Amino acid sequence: MDRRRFLKTTGLTLAAGTGVLSAPFVARAQAAPIRIGLMAPQTGVVAAGGREIIDGFSLFWESAGNQVGGRKVEIIVEDDASNPDTALQKARRLVEQAKVDMLFGNLLANTGLAVANYVKGNGTPYFIPVIAADDLTQRARIKNVIRAGGYSASQFSRPLADWALKQGYRKVAMISQDYTFGHEQCGGFAQAFTEGGGTVVGQFWHPLNTSDFSPYLGQVAGVKADVVFAMQTGADATRLIQQYASFGLKDQIPLLGSQNATDQSVIRTMGAECEGIVTSAHFAEGADLPATQTFVKTYSDKFSKIPSLYAFSHYVGAMWVAKAINAINGKVEDRDVFLDTVLKTDLPDSPLGKPVRFDDYGNPVYDVVIRKTMKNKDGKFWNVPIGGYPQVSQFWKYDPATYMKQPPYSRDFQGIKKT
Amino acid sequence: MVLLALAVLPAVLPSYQVSVVTQVLIFSVLAMSIDILAGFAGRTSLGHGAIFGVSSYVAIYWSSTLGGDIWIGIALGILAATALAGVFAALAIRTSGVYFLLLTLALGMIVWGVCLRWTAVTGGENGLRGVGRPAFIADHASFYYAVLIIVAPLTWLMWRLVHSPFGLTLRGIRDSESRMRSLGYNVPLHLFVAFVLSGFFAGVAGGLYVLFNNFVSPSTVQLSQSVSALLMAITGGVGTLLGSFVGAAAIIVLENAVSAYTARWPSVLGIAFVLIMIFAPEGVVGRARLLLARRRSRSSKPDHSGG
């Protein structure tokens, strides 16, 4: 396919070159399709999420007729194999060989960070609807890396901490996967919670792919917390929620979670054990908003499942960037103008149902919803809004410059206020 | 002649393919370092990915986190890799066969575990990002030449090593350890030196990889890295040394070419390995040598009978 495409374009270029030598370059470039490289894990540990990235992304482009700004859109999908080295290699291939105009995607933070470091050197626009590593839009910001449709890890856990304080909870125990994504989400929660007068009575870090949570849950039960915050992705989240219920903790201590803990990719196959968990996010598939429900229905009809974070954020990310491309009439070759336009573009009509915009650092400002897992009319569990925080940026109520002087969240630094 | 062909490559290939060839050269060095042990000393190591990766980690930590000079970083990385190989060697040389394999595997896993968990230094799962290549080798073509200039003499050095009396002793150990011992050779010392030298070469490969990839994470030191480098040596032909170039080229090019067409590229690679193991267990270069030798002996037969 590549060779044929190569022959075709070479032939066309040669024909154009010999035929109309004086034809302006721009005119020819405009007629060519916009090439988008989409990197998604199709093999490896998070392959299921990768499939939904591709589904959500292509669903938008199909609905747009695979056209934007008067140009055709060509999507080249590459497998990052859930591995940063492979992701880098594929990014190089997309940029240097396939000559894409922009990159999209990746799921795991380490793959995204590797690719971000690569595009830093060559200026290729790179949109990351799932990669949540805080510093990419904070201390280590890269101009051409924009979190279209995505969020930074600690962004949503702060409003959840505030909500928990308002419910009267004062003592939190946290149980999280032991890697950066977990450290950052817990850091956001712990900092906002302790600054608001709460205390963190215990933080329990477990390795990725923990099958038996009993040692951790035993400790959680022992620290006399009045609320628990859980931060797990994928199968770990499923296991934690199941074991939390089977140890009888579900009826004793209310469970809060990060957005990914009750994402559809986790609770899709679960029953009553996941009911009533409160999380915070920019999106709730059970929100009673026409735009949201239209999207959920379209997606469910096509792929026979309720969209997950991966599918939804790539749909929104594509929509957002497409709106910007329309505004500049498809001239994505001028990268500075393109990136500036994306940052200035507001998205009023996305499946989020609420208007969204970017802050000055390439991270969106969202109306964050506090959501609870409930059973819908088809008997499936989904997240339904029970509260909200308008216009939450990645800096919460802090001044960006001051905030960025504190170290990034890690296992050792959780922003916990000393009393 | 091969060298000449390699020298003109950037003139005829697009820049991405040049970077793929650069990657092939770097991994050839790693595969050859494994071949020194596997092919000539009869010790198959599954810990070389870790040695290779430690070199990368040290170089990036020095240049990026500490803000030091990249060349000093790479030198330190190679030093660290050599030292690590010394530790591995001290623990593993008294074993052979599957025990050696398992011990190096376990040692490699320890390194991987440390890289994954020592977040403060290694960046954990997220890895470390480098500072980029120095300006004079920033573009693909000049970097390719720089790698070529380093890899060519390095290959010659390894070639000399395995064909030296020292290399012959290693082969003797491979074929019969007890005989070499009774002939008065210090077997453990020979193996130790071979392992350390092999670690040095793996470290150089790791240093070059830093310049190439500008990023290191636990996936660089994990088992699959060791396995894929070993597969390169096996595909090319264990004990042929230069076969590593063929093996590395075959695997990396196949990865790149196949993944452009199907998401099932790991399966295609897997089938390719199975076929190689069935039809050319001595590797591509090993097989070619056999065929060549057979043809030669066949064509020379009439001469003998006639004369």
Automatic annotation (TrEMBL), chain A:
Pfam families assigned to the protein according to its UniProt record, in alphabetical order: Peripla_BP_6
UniProt xrefs under InterPro entries: BCAA_transport, Leu-bd, Peripla_BP_I, TAT_signal
GO BP annotation list: amino acid transport
Domain named Leucine-binding protein: residues: 33-370
Keyword Calcium: no
UniProt similarity note: Belongs to the leucine-binding protein family.
Protein name per its UniProtKB record: Amino acid/amide ABC transporter substrate-binding protein (HAAT family)
From TrEMBL, chain B:
Chief place where the protein resides: membrane
Topological relation to the membrane, as annotated: Multi-pass membrane protein
Molecular function GO terms recorded: branched-chain amino acid transmembrane transporter activity
Domain of life: Bacteria
Pfam family, any one: BPD_transp_2
Transmembrane regions: 24-41, 46-64, 70-91, 98-121, 141-162, 183-210, 230-254, 261-280
InterPro entries reported in the protein's UniProt record: ABC_transp_permease, LivM-like
Record keyword Transmembrane present: yes
Protein keywords: Cell membrane, Membrane, Transmembrane, Transmembrane helix
Location relative to the cell: Cell membrane
GO cellular component terms, semicolon-separated: plasma membrane
PANTHER family: ABC TRANSPORTER ATP-BINDING PROTEIN, HIGH-AFFINITY BRANCHED-CHAIN AMINO ACID TRANSPORT SYSTEM PERMEASE
Name under which the protein is recorded: Branched-chain amino acid transport system permease protein
Origin species: Bradyrhizobium sacchari
Lineage: Bacteria, Pseudomonadati, Pseudomonadota, Alphaproteobacteria, Hyphomicrobiales
